[in-house]
Amino acid sequence: MEPRPSIRLSGVVKRFGDLVALDAVDLDVASGEIFGILGRSGAGKSTLLRTANLLTRPDSGTVEVDGAELTALRGRELRAARSKTAMIFQHFNLLSNRNAAANVGLPLRFRGTPRAVRRARALELLDLVGLSDKAKAYPGQLSGGQRQRLAIARALASDPAVLLSDEATSALDTETTDEILDLLARLNRELGLTILLITHELEVITRICHRAAVMEEGRFVETGGVPDLLASPGSRLGGQARRLAARLLGEEVAHSAAPIVPGGESL
């Protein structure tokens, strides 16, 4: 008997007026897996992610997270089940008037955790994400990468089983993006954290995801293991990867062939 997936969406439909944002979507994400959803703006990725913890309730279909059917719950029961998930966002959503430790401890404060316990947990998590020396710093004093690390630490404060990532690296430069993705991969390995992420950046999928789906017009048009999709001649994801590689190779060739001016710089 196969283990129950950490996240399961079955026949999920969501409409906004005449727009079908999610068209009978099925999704299984295994416990401890990093699953990526790739798609253009308007494909339905953000609606799907918000449906996965019922911030957006579907019109039909079921959503299960960590064994609980969220679509069958309301009120206090739903809030308790939803606490097993956490989210990180493109623009961090930090409180500018609270320092790093206070931002991390905020979810625990809402749960009535004693101040000393909150403080100790916040410092532990800041150390985990590489911000042990920034406990007293405010978000405005941090770089973009540091703010996303802080947001990740805050998301982990309630000890979630599932982390939902909404374009979490889209506002970051390439080097910082790689650092954040490597941090997520490490948290996945060390904590057994299940991660469901959405992105329009192919590099995010290929760098850390175990499996992925390509989304178009509210549907998955292909799903599979990332190595398998990259190797498949007819795969949309593989096709994107090959086009990107060809473009980068062309740029490299063009740069190496550029004339050299005195001083050693190419034109």
From TrEMBL:
GO terms for biological process: amino acid transport. Residues 7-242 form the ABC transporter domain. GO terms for molecular function: ATP binding; ATP hydrolysis activity. PROSITE patterns: ABC_TRANSPORTER_1, ABC_TRANSPORTER_2. Keywords: Amino-acid transport, ATP-binding, Cell membrane, Membrane, Nucleotide-binding, Translocase, Transport. SUPFAM superfamilies: P-loop containing nucleoside triphosphate hydrolases. SMART domains: AAA. InterPro entries: AAA+_ATPase, ABC_transporter-like_ATP-bd, ABC_transporter-like_CS, MetN_ABC, MetN_ABC_transporter-like, P-loop_NTPase. It comes from the Bacteria. This is D-methionine transport system ATP-binding protein. It comes from Glycomyces harbinensis.
